[in-house]
């Protein structure tokens, strides 16, 4: 106990001697200070408080109105700046984004780098659609696209397990045979041994009379007149259909092809190389068929019940394969990304439901309908190259519209154009002339290569 008292007294005397020997300069250098202890400081240079008992980050020499540099050990060397206003309130200068904005050079550098990255990303992912030569931006790689198609195909087979017809079923054999002809047409359309340029460049010996081309228009006009008379009777003699509402021109295709030829662009077809094509038939009453990325074709028996002829089935399958040729699924994914970003920006200024409605009506749906027409064009060429009469295609789309119970509003508020409009476009478009020429070549046993 006596040792403890002597030790305490010794420590107290040592501290007094240390305090009395400490000399504080009149104009010392500023000491570090932290924001947490900024309010604890002394304005008196001759303070009687022992130095070791003061807060560790106290700065007793702070001068009002002068900017000091402060480094806090708790911030691992981060620099902070503050100043004192006339009300003796200490303000820290902003840092982070605000500090960056204060430097125009840094702002310009950041904007320039971001702009360069965006341009590089955009230009590096531009592709050209076969036949139409339309240039578009596709962010999804073909490898990832095929993997997604494989994954979705496995889900479909698991979903319809027990309803997939065996390979030796008559309907499976029929669909397999039609699909193989179309797949061979795809390969033929990609070959460059004989580049497809113009229907007038074909040998004249295989050309048929001119009325052969007009037969499709005559058949479609007769069907249209017949349907118009039926609509008049159903509506009390009032014709609700107008020609200008039914016919779409293909000027955008012709202009796109012209620009592609002038620029010398090459169609993107690498995603069609080395595909493992697979075809299944699902025993379901749904009137549908589709082709997943990677060459996975799915056909439902409901479609086979309504379309009995092979050429009719080939028309629909060719259309779905046309989507795969044009990589529409990957393009749709890229478009959705940009549209989502645009919607997020517009939502800041408009009501969310207004933004969603307007973007769907004026951006998503028109783009989807254009892709459908593009798949119709490519599918028509594949249909003819496979040896099927392309004049059947307009009748198939017209029939498909009747089965689905479509109306004229289908052309404005749906993802697909109406069957009537698709029939009118294909029958009057220049692509029908090309398809008929390819069909005549296929019938003669030769075939046209490189038409995609």
Automatic annotation (TrEMBL):
Molecular function via GO: metal ion binding; metallopeptidase activity
User: Which residue windows are transmembrane per the record?
Assistant: 107-124
The cofactor(s) it depends on are: Zn(2+)
Task: List the keywords (alphabetical).
Answer: Hydrolase, Membrane, Metal-binding, Metalloprotease, Protease, Transmembrane, Transmembrane helix, Zinc
An individual GO BP term: proteolysis
Top-level taxon in the UniProt lineage? Eukaryota
**Residues in the signal sequence:** none
Tell me the InterPro entries matching this sequence. Answer: Mito/Outer_Membr_Metalloprot (IPR051156), Peptidase_M48 (IPR001915)
Q: Does the keyword Zinc apply?
A: yes
Q: Does the keyword Membrane apply?
A: yes
What range(s) does the Peptidase M48 domain occupy? 269-428
* Protein name (record): Peptidase M48 domain-containing protein
Q: Which organism is it from?
A: Castilleja foliolosa
């Amino acid at each position: 106990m006596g040792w403890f008292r002597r030790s305490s007294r010794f420590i107290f005397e040592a501290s007094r001697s240390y305090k009395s020997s400490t000399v504080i300069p009149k104009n010392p250098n500023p000491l570090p200070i932290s924001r947490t202890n900024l309010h604890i400081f002394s304005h008196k240079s001759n303070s009687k408080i022992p130095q070791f008992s003061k807060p560790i980050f106290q700065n007793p020499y702070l001068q009002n109105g002068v900017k000091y540099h402060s480094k806090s050990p708790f911030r691992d060397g981060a620099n902070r700046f503050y100043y004192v206003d006339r009300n003796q309130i200490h303000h820290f200068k902003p840092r982070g984004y605000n500090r960056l904005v204060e430097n125009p050079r840094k702002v310009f550098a950041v904007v320039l780098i971001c702009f360069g990255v965006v341009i590089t990303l955009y230009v590096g992912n531009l592709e050209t659609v076969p036949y139409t030569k339309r240039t578009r931006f596709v962010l999804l790689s073909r490898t990832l696209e095929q993997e997604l198609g494989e994954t979705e195909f496995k889900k479909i087979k698991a979903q319809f397990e027990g309803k997939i017809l065996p390979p030796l079923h008559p309907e499976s054999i029929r669909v397999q045979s039609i699909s193989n002809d179309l797949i061979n047409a795809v390969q033929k359309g990609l070959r460059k041994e004989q580049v497809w340029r113009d229907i007038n460049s074909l040998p004249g010996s295989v050309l048929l009379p001119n009325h052969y081309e007009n037969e499709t228009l005559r058949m479609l006009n007769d069907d249209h007149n017949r349907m118009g008379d039926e609509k008049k009777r159903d509506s009390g003699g009032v014709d609700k259909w107008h020609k200008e509402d039914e016919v779409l021109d293909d000027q955008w295709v012709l202009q796109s092809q012209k620009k592609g030829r002038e620029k010398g662009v090459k169609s993107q077809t690498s995603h069609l190389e080395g595909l493992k094509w697979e075809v299944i038939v699902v025993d379901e009453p749904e009137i549908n068929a589709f082709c997943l990325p990677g060459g996975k074709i799915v056909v439902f028996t409901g479609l086979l019940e309504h379309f009995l002829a092979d050429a009719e089935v080939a028309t629909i399958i060719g259309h779905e394969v046309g989507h795969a040729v044009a990589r529409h699924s990957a393009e749709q994914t890229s478009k959705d990304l940009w549209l989502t970003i645009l919607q997020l920006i517009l939502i800041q200024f408009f009501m969310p439901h207004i933004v969603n409605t307007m973007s769907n009506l004026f951006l998503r749906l028109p783009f989807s309908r254009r892709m459908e027409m593009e798949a119709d064009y490519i599918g028509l060429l594949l249909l003819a190259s496979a040896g099927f009469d392309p004049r059947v295609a307009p009748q198939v789309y017209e029939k498909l519209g009747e089965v689905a119970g479509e109306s004229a509003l289908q052309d404005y508020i749906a993802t697909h154009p109406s069957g009537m409009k698709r029939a009118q476009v294909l029958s009057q478009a220049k692509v029908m002339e090309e398809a008929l020429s390819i069909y005549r070549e296929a019938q003669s046993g030769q075939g046209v290569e490189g038409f995609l």
